[in-house]
Hints:
Layout: E1 17-19, E2 29-30, H1 33-44, E3 47-55, E4 68-74, E5 77-81, H2 91-96, E6 101-104, H3 107-116, E7 123-126, H4 127-133, H5 141-149, E8 151-153, H6 169-180, H7 182-196, H8 199-211, H9 234-254, H10 258-261, H11 264-273, H12 278-282, H13 290-307, H14 330-333, H15 335-354, H16 359-362, H17 365-373, H18 381-390, H19 395-412
Amino acid sequence: MEAALPESVGPDRPEPVLLTEPAGGVPPVIDAPQALRAAADELAGGSGPVAVDTERASGYRYSQRAYLVQVRREGVGTFLVDPIALNGDLQPLVSALDGTEWVLHAASQDLPCLAELGLRPERLFDTELAGRLAGFERVSLGTLVERMLGYQLEKGHSAADWSKRPLPQDWLVYAALDVELLVALRAAMHDNLEQQGKLAWAREEFESVRTAEPPAARSEPWRRTSGIHRVRSPRQLAAVRALWQTRDAYAQERDLAPGRVLPDSSIVQAAQANVQDEAELTALPVFGGKQQRRRAAMWMQALRTARRLSAEELPAAAGPSDGPPPTNRWADRDPDAAARLSAARTALATIAEHNALPVENLLLPDLLRRVCWAPPADTSIEGVSAVLRDRGAREWQIGLTADALSSALQTAAGD
């Protein structure tokens, strides 16, 4: 039985209805091939878009795999699928969803782990991205459901350890509610975007998310250690690198979140302290705990390895970068580039405000910085459009920004 939606979703609507459980109850978790085949047959017989969500164990596990997959479709209800119990073989579900439109909230977070299971949408509607394009300041699932549908979702367990088995019943309630109203929300957001004349923009954005390539691996991921800006010398940087790499290998082998193995703050502290032996190491906060005492020899080995490096083997003070420098340095390093960026930002802010869009959705800030730091030789509208297109901007973004960017680049250059 489908949940009935309140008649009014406008400013005078009644207080939101608290939704504490799915209308049809919480379905059993599908953890056997036969049950999966039966569920797939039911889903194939449903109608309309398919609501999809996943639950991961971020903060607990090294991997970003899905530990639960939730699927809902009109006419057949909700299914909760345990990919772990099924050894990652969800082929019946892949076949059942073939050719359907998927509705996800913040799809870029879920698509990678779904792809690991062979699940890839042919069409996509992202309700979070729709909310951003609609100009809403708050776009969480709960906020949009309340605003557009008049329901309030009970706060749940998004940050829980979903690798836990068996999954507690209240977690399953939360998981099922995540897809309960997604299709209804999709319909409301579709109409809102259509009324604003933004539906074509949204379709381009959804397709860009759907077809996005995985980000390239960073050449020196250890440089993202929180607090590394406090580390000054190359020798200390080498210690951070050694500890980070040792932690990463240990965490990956045991499928543990790196931060649960050793916090970033402890890596930085050990690098700065220049400890000489395990006694000095375990005298530091965190390292004196029971778990860290057992790993003390491993951490000291990493530190000794860093200490033995020659000067030529030490890391550079700054990591490699193919992008422009931080914008707060532009005025000194290239005043013309700083002027271009200022003019372009002003122009884009005006366009974003006129279209009720976040400026970062109008054009990626990194793309804007790159164009302003190293502008094309041809700063005509056609030349700027070509550069934006080559760097991944969508046609609707180019249509809104190329003219203003061209003028900003030429004005700043004194043309």
